[in-house]
Each structure stands twice: as structure tokens, then as C-alpha cells.
Specification:
The chain is of the alpha+beta class. The chain is built from 10 helices and 18 strands. The strands form 4 sheets. Strands 1, 2, 3, 12, 13, 15, 16, 17 and 18 form a 9-stranded antiparallel β-sheet that branches. A 4-stranded antiparallel β-sheet has the order 4-7-10-9. Strands 8-11-14 form a 3-stranded antiparallel β-sheet. The longest helix is centred in the last third of the chain and has 22 residues.
Length: 380
């Protein structure tokens, strides 16, 4: 388990539009040997896409757009090839999320840099993270204990499915992204809805962020964030005010502004961003890219606090270069919590219930309520 190392990124004062608060993240020294750009799938119809996974297996997933990461092995600057803009297709308000595979693939286009560890990788934003969540203890029980059916061992938790909303459906997010300014050196943003942490997005270079700023509308957001934006009222603005101390020159004004901005960033890290910074994650590497690592992570599924799944690219020192997160709903957190406890006790309901401090029947009720009733034997 490890946390997210966001060193090198500084939070700037947030901007508020209705229930949406956007907190810009500025990078003092941009990463130049890894660049990120968007790839729009113009040849595919809007909506679910079927992808062949090999060995006669197919999977279905919603693919709004892909990211392509280009890197160099010698530290020289990498270019963001082939940046494109979307074509305004009809939005999908709510899309099903199934269990896709092979979501990161090496790209081998003619004319791309080769040798020296350079390369290009195509992957689907957020689908790496969702793949990890949907695959959580996917195999189910390894032994047919008294409470589980033979189907539970034979088929596991298949099929697993969740639902999410595109950013275009989150009230206020479109206007916020359109109206708010992009800061000089901005390489990311933290999205809050009704002051609840909704998503984090970080890229290597300011030029990448400018090109991908609007892509947040094609990203996926949990049902809870959609409801917060729809029913929650406007959040309070927190303008940065200078102290009443006398300022006699532009240099003193600049120094006071920088000092106040640093104080705001420290307050933000301590109050609002603790759900990202203080949590420990189960990180699994997906692909090695020279000195960079593409990974996905799962939270500890602690109850009664915000929990995020996500994916990231880190450098050789473990610092985050790319980051995208998805906040789970309370029910999704409870599913992960119960599955973790059952797997830790070899899927024996009695032992898991004792460790959780609840009764056997209560745990059976929770398993049924969380949507896994098809795997249980029905008792009269």
C-alpha cells in the first residue's frame, strides 16, 4: 500500500460555479520527456464498443476517447503527436461499465521515435481503474462452503457491472470548464462537487493540459457526484484576500500575494484534499515506459469516507506525472469492503462476520443487498 506523491504540484485558489469548485494544480517544472495527448475514435459509433480480447473472448465497454503517452528514453523532450479535437457527437448521459481487457497497448506507428527506450502507448482513460475495481476478487470463493452455490465457484462474480455519468451530464461542469481561466503552468485540476472530492486530473506538461482541459466532459463520474450537482446548492466562494498590513510597493504586493497563495494551498491540502493525499492505495503496475510506470490503484475501502479508484503514471522517484481518479459511491465502497473481508477469510461467512463484529445472518443480508444474492444458497 502506498499514497500519491504529488510533490512538484501546487494548488492555486479554487474557482466556483454553482456547486462545482475547480482547484488548479500548477507544476513548477513541467515534465518534458513524457507527453500526453488525446485520440478521438472517429470510426466508432457513439456508445458501447465491442473489443476482441483474444482466444475467442469479447468484451463490451463505452469508449469516449483514448490517451496516447509518448516518451523518450534519453531525457530529451517528447512531442505530443496527433492532438485532435472532438466532433460534437451526441452525448451518452449514462453508460454501463463492463469488464474490459487489454486496455493499454503499445503503439507502433510509422515515423514515431524508436530506440533508446522511446515509445508510445495507447490507453483508455479511467478504464484501467474501473477494470481493477470490477475485477476485485472476481473469481469468487475457491471452495464451496455451506453458504455458497457451485455457481459461485464455477463462474465467480461474473458478470460485474456498474453505472457512471459522463461529465457533460453533471450540471455546471460544462460551464465551469468553459468560463474559468487556465493558469500559467497549470498541469492539472481537482474537481469538487458540493465541496465533495469528485475527481483529480494531472498531466505532465501545461500544453498537454490545455489540449485536454475539455476532455473532462468525456470522463466518467459516479452517480453520487451527479446527484450532488443536481440537487446541491451553490457552494461558498473563498476569495484570497491580502492582510491589512501596509503595502508600499509592487514588490511588497507581489510578496504578500505569494505568501497568501501559499497559505491557501496549505489550508487546502489539510482540509479538502486529505481524501487523496492521506489515503493508502493498493498500486498495481500495468506497463513500464522507460523511466515511467503506468499503474492503477484501489483504495483500502474504508467505510464512511470518500474513496477513489484511479490510474497514474509515475517517474523513477515515484512522483505522479499523470493521474486520473474516479470517486466510488457509498454502495460501491461497501461492496469492496465486504469482498475484501470475505476474501481475507477464505470466503467463510462465519469467520468474516466475526472479524467484522456482526452476526452471520447480518453478513448474509449485506451480501444479498450488495447484489451478490445469485451466488448464495437460499435458506428458508
Amino acid at each position: 500500500m502506498s499514497g500519491l506523491d504529488l510533490s512538484g504540484l501546487r494548488a492555486c485558489p479554487g474557482q466556483v460555479w454553482g456547486a462545482v469548485r475547480l482547484v488548479p494544480l500548477v507544476r513548477a517544472e513541467p515534465v518534458t520527456d513524457l507527453r500526453l495527448h488525446r485520440e478521438v475514435y472517429r470510426d466508432e459509433p457513439a456508445g458501447p464498443v465491442t473489443v476482441r480480447s483474444g482466444k475467442g473472448t469479447y468484451c463490451t465497454t463505452y469508449v469516449p476517447h483514448g490517451f496516447v503517452a509518448d516518451w523518450t528514453g534519453d531525457g530529451s523532450p517528447a512531442a505530443a503527436y496527433g492532438s485532435q479535437l472532438g466532433d460534437g457527437r451526441a452525448p451518452v448521459v449514462c453508460a454501463p461499465l463492463h469488464f474490459p481487457r487489454r486496455l493499454a497497448q503499445r503503439r507502433c506507428d510509422k515515423g514515431r521515435p524508436s530506440g533508446g527506450g522511446s515509445g508510445s502507448l495507447r490507453f483508455l482513460p479511467l478504464h484501467l481503474a474501473l477494470d481493477g475495481y470490477l475485477a476485485l476478487h472476481f473469481g469468487g470463493p475457491s471452495t464451496v462452503w455451506e453458504e455458497w452455490t457451485r455457481r459461485a465457484v464455477r463462474e465467480g462474480l461474473s458478470p460485474r457491472a456498474e453505472r457512471a455519468y459522463r461529465g457533460e451530464a453533471v450540471p455546471g461542469l460544462d460551464d465551469a470548464l468553459r468560463v474559468f481561466e487556465i493558469h500559467p503552468g497549470q498541469c492539472g485540476v481537482l474537481v469538487y462537487v458540493a465541496d465533495a472530492p469528485a475527481a483529480a486530473f494531472v498531466v505532465p506538461h501545461p500544453d498537454d493540459y490545455r489540449a485536454l482541459h475539455a476532455s473532462l466532459l468525456q470522463d466518467l463520474y459516479g452517480e453520487l457526484m451527479y446527484q450532488y450537482a443536481l440537487y446541491g446548492g451553490p457552494v461558498r466562494e473563498d476569495p484570497v484576500r491580502l492582510s491589512d498590513a501596509y503595502i508600499g510597493s509592487l514588490a511588497e504586493l507581489r510578496s504578500a500575494a505569494e505568501r497568501r497563495a501559499a497559505e491557501w494551498a496549505a489550508q487546502h491540502a489539510g482540509l479538502m484534499a486529505d481524501s487523496w493525499l492521506d489515503a493508502s492505495y493498493d498500486v498495481r503496475q500495468v506497463y513500464r515506459m522507460g523511466r515511467f510506470r503506468l499503474s492503477r490503484f484501489l483504495p483500502p475501502f474504508a467505510l464512511h469516507r470518500p474513496q477513489h479508484i484511479g490510474e497514474m503514471i509515475t517517474d523513477g522517484k515515484g512522483r505522479v506525472v499523470y493521474l486520473k481518479t474516479f470517486r466510488l459511491t457509498d454502495k460501491q465502497v461497501r461492496r469492496g469492503h465486504v469482498l475484501h473481508r470475505l476474501a481475507a477469510h477464505d470466503w467463510q461467512v462465519g469467520r468474516a462476520a466475526e472479524a467484522m463484529g456482526i452476526g452471520h445472518q447480518e453478513l448474509m443480508r449485506r451480501v444479498e443487498h450488495l447484489g451478490f444474492e445469485g451466488l448464495l444458497k437460499l435458506h428458508g
